[in-house]
Write a structure and sequence with these properties.
single chain; about 270 residues; MetI-like fold; 11 helices
Length: about 270
């Protein structure tokens, strides 16, 4: 590769990162402004962060949002992992492709349609709108994400490993526990983190299925934005951005630890 192409490639990458992160930096930067609006910066202060942490309603909403995301990601990961195994073990290609197509419908359908569908479904079953309806909805739209993360790892699993384990007398549960799950763990973790992120970020579906005074962070920010965004929301954005950054760093180190563990096993 020539030096000119190398430099232009770096310049393009820098430009992409600037476009992506400049609005975030602008938003977080104003969280330290001593003013009340984002019209102009008025001097450095942590006042808005103090207001945020002294706002019991907002703290409760953040905790509820994290709880919904954790529960949805956990159950979606369990269901999606076993669903991916079932799809992978399906012998007939036509049946397998049909199931995959049905799995992918939630991935390509507009969020508004999904939210409205869940609203009609819960209303027909007399399920009260609130915490339970939000969790169930988030589990449902997170399952296809987990399936798509786990399925490629299952396809990479060598059949010889399963045959060797069975030849050594391992039962089906032992093969699952000692061979299959350790091999596909990176896909399971990827699915969990993706499901957690999608649930944390979702607005459209949650907007349709929430009620009875229960709010998530995205719906609350939308409600406050219609009244004029205060810099407390900027402070919240800064905290959530830091939280997301820590998640990414944590996930990176988990993957590095798994990679080094595999290399050690392979070197034996």
């Amino acid at each position: 590769m020539s030096k000119s192409k190398f430099k232009w490639g770096h310049l393009y990458l820098i430009l992409v990162f600037v476009v992506l992160y400049l609005p975030i930096a602008y938003l977080v930067g104003f969280s330290f402004s001593d003013g009340e609006r984002m019209s102009h910066f008025k001097g450095f202060t942590f006042r808005h962060y103090g207001e945020l942490f002294n706002d019991p309603r907002m703290i409760q909403i953040v905790l509820d949002t994290l709880l919904v995301a954790l529960l949805a990601a956990l159950f979606a990961t369990i269901i999606g992992t076993f669903g991916a195994m079932a799809i992978n073990n399906t012998r007939k290609a036509g049946v397998r492709n049909s199931i995959l197509s049905l799995n992918n419908i939630l991935m390509v359908s507009p969020d508004v349609i999904i939210g409205a569908s869940f609203l009609i479904f819960f209303t027909a079953l007399n399920v009260p709108l609130g915490f339970l309806s939000v969790v169930l909805s988030h589990i449902a739209f997170s399952i296809p994400i987990v399936v798509l993360m786990v399925l490629p790892k299952l396809k990479e699993l060598p059949g010889s490993m399963l045959d060797a384990a069975q030849d050594l007398g391992a039962t089906n549960s032992q093969v699952l526990r000692d061979v299959v799950l350790p091999f596909i763990t990176p896909g399971i973790l990827s699915g969990f983190f993706m499901a957690f992120t999608y649930s944390l970020d979702d607005f459209a579906v949650t907007f349709f299925v929430t009620g009875n005074g229960f709010q998530t962070l995205s719906v609350e920010i939308y409600a406050r934005a219609r009244q004029g965004i205060s810099l407390e929301i900027n402070a919240l954005s800064g905290v959530m951005f830091l939280f997301a950054l820590l998640l990414v760093i944590g996930y990176y180190f988990i993957q590095q630890a798994q990679t080094s563990r595999k290399h050690k096993k392979g070197g034996r």
